[in-house]
């Protein structure tokens, strides 16, 4: 497996890291909330709510990243190391995005989000 494919796996796991922060950061999530966790998550505030929002955004962007990596690999015009570097940069951008979201740095979070989306688009350009 390539580094880029491992990065897809990491990107698939990142939303669940955010879920853990959302559920367990305030100490209120327990067995009774597990019967209807979506209602519990919808009622969160502050740090836990931001963690939940980061989770949702991570679920939204990961399919685009995975598709970009797979398409770049299938087309085969890009150097494998280029695809690997872009994938590592994307995962790094997602980690920074999550940190910015949790820290409530809204402007920096938006900048990092745009960088991440630019990286997704770049997979298509390096494969031309």
Automatic annotation (TrEMBL):
Q: Which domain of life is it from?
A: Bacteria
Alphabetically ordered keywords of this record: Membrane, Signal, Transmembrane, Transmembrane helix
A GO term from the CC aspect:
membrane
Which Pfam families does the record associate with it?
Answer: MAPEG
Q: Where in the cell is it found?
A: Membrane
Q: Which residues cross the membrane?
A: 85-103, 110-127
Main localization is membrane
Query: Which interval of the chain is the signal sequence?
Result: 1-22
Q: Which InterPro entries match?
A: MAPEG-like_dom_sf (IPR023352), Membr-assoc_MAPEG (IPR001129)
Which segments of the protein form a coiled coil according to its record?
none
What protein does this entry describe?
MAPEG family protein
In its UniProt entry, the species of origin is given as Pseudomonas versuta
């Amino acid at each position: 497996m390539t580094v880029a494919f491992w990065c897809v796996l990491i990107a698939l796991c990142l939303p669940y890291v955010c879920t853990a922060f959302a559920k367990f950061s305030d100490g209120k999530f327990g067995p009774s909330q597990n019967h209807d966790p979506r209602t519990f998550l919808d009622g969160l505030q502050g740090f836990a709510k931001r963690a939940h929002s980061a989770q949702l955004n991570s679920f939204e962007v990961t399919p685009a990243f995975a598709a970009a990596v797979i398409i770049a690999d299938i087309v085969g015009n890009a150097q494998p190391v280029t695809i690997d570097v872009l994938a590592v940069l994307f995962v790094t951008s997602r980690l920074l995005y999550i940190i910015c979201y949790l820290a409530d740095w809204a402007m920096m979070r938006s900048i990092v989000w745009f960088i991440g989306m630019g990286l997704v688009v770049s997979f298509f350009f390096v494969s031309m």
